[in-house]
Amino acid sequence: MEEQGQGFITVNVRTAGGALPVEGATITIKTVDGENSTVVAVMITDSAGTSDVVALPAPPKENSQQPGNENVCSFYTIDTDRDGYYHVVNENVPVFDGVTAIQQVLLVPIAGGRPDLTPYDLIRFSSGQLPNL
Fold first, then answer.
1. CA torsion angle for 35, 41, 42, 44 (degrees, to 10)?
2. What is the dihedral of CA 107, 111, 116, 120, to 10 degrees?
3. Residue pair 92/77 in contact by the 8 Å Cβ criterion
4. What is the DSSP letter of 130?
5. CB 49 within 8 A of CB 23
6. Angle 58-98-48 from CA coordinates, rounded to 5°
7. pTM, whole model, 2 decimals?
8. Is the Cβ–Cβ distance between 54 and 9 less than 8 Å?
9. Which of 9, 24, 29, 49 could form a disulfide with 13 if both were Cys (CB 3.0 to 4.6 A apart)?
10. b/e per residue, 79-109, with b = 16+ CB within 10 A?
11. How many secondary structure helices (H) and strands (E) does the chain include?
């Protein structure tokens, strides 16, 4: 069995182009296992918009010293949610052994209480795909 390392991650949640912290946002970190993802941590941001630092399993850093080895980090999904803001999902967030990563999340306020409206910049487009405006 391969030895396991440990990486760390904290989440900073902001609004207004990153200028203002969002207190009370719920951060859910899940493994990336296709349809069988597992919740590994749930946290709430503090008054500075920052979550606790959480330790997560990651492949040992020695793996990065072997040419061609693709198993150098673990990937996680980070869900960020707060009443009055659009839900944000960051997929395939890498975590490396011995490194503390800081994931920045920018929340967009829901205008006029209409969660069914999606702001243009939150829509993901594939290369060559044009938005239907």
1. -140
2. -60
3. yes
4. P
5. yes
6. 100
7. 0.77
8. yes
9. 49
10. bbebeebbebeeeebebbbeeebebebbbee
11. 0, 8
Please state, in angstroms and rounded to a whole number, the distance separating the CA atoms of residues 8 and 76: 11
Token pair belonging to 109: 């306020």
pLDDT in tens, 46-85: 999 999 999 999 999 888 777 877 788 899 999 999 999 9
At 74, list the tokens.
């673990």
Compute the distance between CA of residue 81 and CA of residue 17 in angstroms, rounded to an integer. Answer: 17
Report d(CA 90, CA 7) in Å as an integer. Answer: 17
Instruction: Give the total residue count for the chain.
Output: 133
Segment (H or E) for 11: strand 5-15
Whether 53 and 11 have beta carbons less than 8 Å apart is answered as: no
Q: Are 37 and 97 in contact (CB under 8 A)?
A: no
